[in-house]
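Interim report to the steering committee. The following record documents the input for DUF1611 domain-containing protein (335 residues).
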Amino acid sequence: MINGPFLLYLGHSTDPVGIKTSRGLADFRRQDCVGEFRYDDCPLTLGLPRMTLAEGAAAGARTLVLGIANSGGTMDPALIDDAAEALDNGMHVVSGLHQRLRDVPQLAELAAAKGLDLIDVRNPPADLKVGTGRPRAGRRILTVGTDCSVGKMYTTIALTQGLKARGESADFRATGQTGILIAGSGVPLDAVVADFISGAIEQVAPARDDGGWDVIEGQGSLFHPSFAGVSTGLIHGAQAEALVLCHDPARQGMRGLPERPLPGLAECLALNLRMAALTSPGVRAAGVCLNTSSLAEDAARELCESTGTELGLPCTDPVRFGVDNVIDNLLCPAN
């Protein structure tokens, strides 16, 4: 667990999806967030007090979280300068980017001189094993998606909370930088060497005999040319008994590849089930979760109802409407 209080970094970001790590912390660890740091050209906000780096430190922030994402996960010179200023103000710095803080000499030297920590969340364990696909005990759910950043993490957390509310033992298994910062543990799957992806998931959600659930956060999409490899290894390692499909109906094209259309929901679900059957022959679909934040509430309800009818599955927006109908199907499947 990375200790707060946090100052959340938005910087010059203009893409709402690109600040998902900062937004996730603001939503799920808000009590640990003192404010947000953003420039005048950033139109986004998390609804937290806007602070300079010095003001954040004075307000009690112990850690600056570079909670932004970009293609390739690199740090530009301005971001490095901001991280250095945070260190000068006595804050540790956490990053979920692929480029590691400790590999930037300016930051490594400054942190060492001040006795502060540089924490790279995308730092997989060194003892990962190759996956085997052998049957293992336990009940596991995996969220899958039509695209990247369509709500898989939010759905996974909602399902975990929903199962606990029913008296079930359930654990959120994080596989991305945002989830790891929220949960305090997990594996940054997109930083794992390809041969070890399925094994990493077997390790993060090992056999269990208590009747409880491992609710595993999905990554990427089988239909996204850039990230389908990660999604495939995750599906095989999860050995899930149930999949929950996530989708953003406002998305016009694949994230980062807007010219490529998203798959149909039925098509996407069918392929995910077929891939999952390699290591979990009895896998089934438990429900569909939509991100309807771009729709009015009545339109969102209508879309959930029509989607559920079309696919023959419970459908909801986990943030707006909860996940009771999906939990019902998990615990007492209609089929």
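The mean pLDDT is 95. The committee is asked to note this result when reviewing the revised timeline.
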